Amino acid sequence: MKIQIINGPNLNLVGIREPGIYGSSSFLSYFETLKKRYPAIEFAYFQSNIEGEIIDKIHETGFSFDGILLNAGAYTHTSVAIHDAIKAINAPVVEIHLSNVHAREKFRHQSLITAACKGVIAGFGMDSYRLGVEAIIELKAK
Ligand code: DQA
């Protein structure tokens, strides 16, 4: 099984950025833990602060991977283009957030990508990604 993880803007700074909200470990160190936990799964990781690069990665992996975990960061709340990219591919996409966006500012309550995704996992810190992996395993088993 192949799972692509895509992190959007400012997620390269997790660990340093607002640790009270996003925690103090970097995504790359968590990624090592995740890979060890699921040795049979082939993971690929991509992070970009640029909307078009995120869209290109969705296109590139969306026809060959079994699923995509997408934390689009702030583009979640603004990007019709990412919504359309998710609709254009075959792989199921799980929307991921570290924080519980619904318990935060009002502008984070709306997601423009949820309707194009299989589902959403938000509020569990880094564990949101592991829960996303479980969701893709279950989808694949159906
Ligand atoms: C986030 C939530 C977004 O509102 C925010 O812009 C982020 C991170 C999260 O993982 O909680 O950059 O996607």
Looking at the structure, what is the overall shape?
Answer: globular
Contiguous low-pLDDT stretches (5 residues minimum) are none
Q: Which ligands appear in the coordinates?
A: 1,3,4-trihydroxy-5-OXO-cyclohexanecarboxylic acid
Radius of gyration: 14 Å
Q: Would you count the extended β strands for me? A: 5
Distance between the termini: 14 Å
Instruction: List the total number of helices.
Output: 5
Give the SSE order as H and E letters.
EHHEHEHEEH
What's the pLDDT, averaged over the residues? 97
Provide the fold topology:
Layout (H helix, E strand, L loop, with lengths): L1 E6 L11 H4 L4 H11 L4 E6 L3 H11 L5 E5 L8 H9 L4 E5 L21 E4 L4 H15 L1
Parallel strand pairs: 1-2, 1-3, 3-4, 4-5
The chain binds 1,3,4-trihydroxy-5-OXO-cyclohexanecarboxylic acid (DQA).
Short description:
The protein has 142 residues and is α/β, with parallel strands linked by helices.
What would you say this structure looks like, in words?
The relative contact order is 0.19. The mean pLDDT is 97. With 142 residues, the protein is an alpha/beta fold. The longest helix has 15 residues, at 127-141. Strands 2-1-3-4-5 form a 5-stranded parallel sheet, sandwiched between helices. Helix 3 packs parallel to helix 4 (80-88). It contains 5 helices and 5 strands; from the N terminus they run E-H-H-E-H-E-H-E-E-H. Helix content is 35%, strand content 18%. Helix 4 links the parallel strand 3 and strand 4. The chain has helices at 19-22, 27-37, 51-61, 80-88, 127-141; strands at 2-7, 42-47, 67-71, 93-97, 119-122. 1,3,4-trihydroxy-5-OXO-cyclohexanecarboxylic acid (DQA) binds next to loops.
